[in-house]
Automatic annotation (TrEMBL), chains A, B:
Molecular function via GO: serine-type peptidase activity
Family to which this protein belongs: Belongs to the peptidase S51 family.
Name used for this protein in its record: Dipeptidase E
Cell division among keywords: no
A GO BP annotation: proteolysis
Keyword Protease appears in the UniProt entry: yes
Keywords: Hydrolase, Protease, Serine protease
Amino acid sequence: MKKVLLASTSTLYGGGYLEYLLPTLKKHFENVNTLLFIPYARPSGISHEEYTMKVGEAFSKININVRGLHEFENPEKAIQEAEAIFTGGGNTFLLVSELYNNNLMDVLKKVINDGTPYLGTSAGSNIGGKTMNTTNDMPIILPKSFDTLGILNFNLNPHYLDPLEGSTHMGETRETRINEFHKQSSIPVLGLREGSWLEIYDNNVIIRGELTARLFRQNEFPVEMSPGENLNFI
Amino acid sequence: MKKVLLASTSTLYGGGYLEYLLPTLKKHFENVNTLLFIPYARPSGISHEEYTMKVGEAFSKININVRGLHEFENPEKAIQEAEAIFTGGGNTFLLVSELYNNNLMDVLKKVINDGTPYLGTSAGSNIGGKTMNTTNDMPIILPKSFDTLGILNFNLNPHYLDPLEGSTHMGETRETRINEFHKQSSIPVLGLREGSWLEIYDNNVIIRGELTARLFRQNEFPVEMSPGENLNFI
C-alpha cells in the first residue's frame, strides 16, 4: 500500500533543485494534480512562502501544482485530503517540533501508511525513520520527542559522508557519531549518500541511485548495500 | 571569582590527549591535588571508567590526581566538595541528559560561579554556554532541556569549521547551521576553532590560542575576533 521515496538530498552539486529526481518523480506522482508541501524545515531559515514557491517552480516542470501546508487553516484536514505529500529538507529539529506543535505526526503517518504518495528529501527523509536521533542537523529547537514516522524499520542518516582521508580535523566523523548512537540504541541506521534514495513500495525498501549505502547495526561491522538491494529484511 | 577554561578540543592533530593545554592547565589548576572528572559525554561510547583512566594519565604529567564523578555515591556532594572540575568531550546530548538525570546542572553552575576552577573541552565547553543549541553532535538521546550552565553570556560552537572551498557536498555548512539557529534565537554564538580556548577569569572572557574565533550575532555579519580580545562586551 505504501508509495514512498526518501532521498538523501534535494539537490546534487551543480544541478537544480530536485532536478536529478524529476524523471523518478514524474512516475511516482503519476496522475497527481496538486501536491501538498510541508515547508516546516525552512533551510537557511527561509519563510514557508519562499520555500513553497521554490518547490512549486520545480514541480511545474512535471505539471504538478504545489500548495504549502501553512496555507491551510486546518492542516490536519489538508494532510488527510492530500493527493500526495512532499516534506522538504532543512532543519530536522524545527520540522519535528512543528509537526508535534501542530499535532500532525500521527495523521501524516496514517495517510502515508494508507497509500498517499510521499516524497521526503534530507530532513523530510529523516522523519521516515523510527526516530530523528541520527540527523546531522543542529539542535536549534527542542522538539517534545525524537520519535518520527517509522515508515522504515530503521533510521536514516542523509547526506552520509565517508571519513575524509588525511583530514586533520578532530571533530567526530559521521561513523563515530553513529557508533555513539549504537551505544544508546539498537535501531539500525542507513547512511544514504547524496544521489541515493529509497523506494518504499508496499513492503519493499529498494536502494536507488548509483551509489552504495552504508548499513550500521549495533555490535556489527557496517556493510555497504548496493543499488537495487531490498532492505525489507531489516 | 570565576576561573574557567573552555577549549574547542581536547586534542590537536598529531598531539596527545590534552597535550597542547598542559602548560596552561598547570597554572590554571595550581595547588590542586585532586581533580573531579565528569565522564558523562563518553566519546565513541567508551565507559566512564576507561574515560577517567585516560584523563588520569594526562593529568599525572602535571601531578594531579583524577577521580571520576561516577565513583561517588553522592555526585552532588562530590561536585560541592571538589577542588577543581573537568568535563570532557564526547556527545553533548548524552552529557546534558546525564547532568539533568542526576540533578547536577544547578550545583555545577553554582560551584563554578563561586570559584571552583573548571575546565571544559568540546562537549564540556559547550555546556558553558547559555544553551546547547549550537553543538555539532548527533542527538543520540533527548535531554529534558537544552539549557546549560550559562557561564558565558553566549553559546559556543566548538570544533568550528570554515566552509570547505570547492566542496561538492550539499549538506549545510557550519555557518548555515548557525544562521538557522539565529532565525530561532538571539543568543550570540562563538565559533571556536580547534586550538583555541576561552579563559574566563572573573568577568573577563579572553580568546586564547593562535587562531581567531568567529562571532555570529543575529541580523549582523559575522566577525573574526583575535586572540587576546575580551568578549565581556557580549
